[in-house]
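Homework help board

Subject: predicted structure for assignment chain

Our instructor gave us this sequence and asked us to write out the predicted structure in token form, then describe one feature. I got the tokens but I'm not sure how to describe them. Can anyone check?
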Amino acid sequence: MAQPVPRITDPQAIPVIGIDDHLPPVAPAALTAPALRALFAAPPAFEPEIPGDGGRFAPGRAATPAAVLVPLVMRAHGLQVLLTQRTPHLRDHAGQVSFPGGRAEPHDADAVATALRETEEEVGLARRHIEVIGTLPVYRTVTSYVVTPVVGLVQPDFDLALDANEVAEAFEVPLAFLMAPANHHRHRFEWDGHARQFLSMPWTRPGGQAPYFIWGATAAMLRNLYGFLAGAR
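My token output:
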């Protein structure tokens, strides 16, 4: 029987064992709206590097379908990934940096509908601003969510209205930064003779005082996006 994975309460305290600067960044020409539209219109065969932990933290907890939006905001200076900082009191993934999204509801037609609905509810980003261009393979979280990442291009003329119960902050990170493995840090911790690794992508806003610590499921899905884009060269 698989051993339960201890909950990580302070991921920044887990040692960094390596940085993936030996891997090339995705070329700038591939990080444009036209290039991404073309790639998702005819996606190559792809196996995600990090499929997830499959509910090892909560054995016996039923798998819950969910979806997130990977919102790529089409700014004049390049694509930006819109992320959220979750509020600290939530049951799952409290205080973490996340994509907007959440669990599927019975009335959702599919994962795309879930991602768009949850995004509008969480951050007020109306679906009229979003052009869905494709999906990535599902990611299975330690808390037994089976998450479909839905990739969308976002027109920049939007206003956000955050759900204060779920979202403490929304911010944007350059896609080029996240698609450069030199910014991907590998962490490792051990418990009861077992080991677990996870990625982080700390990012500091220009003029900011401290980095946003992007890690866990969000970092893993971004790494899978990197693999999808890098493998298409």
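Reply (TA_rk): Your tokens look well-formed. For the description, you could write something like this. Helices lie at 33-41, 111-123, 175-178, 216-230. That's the kind of observation they're looking for.
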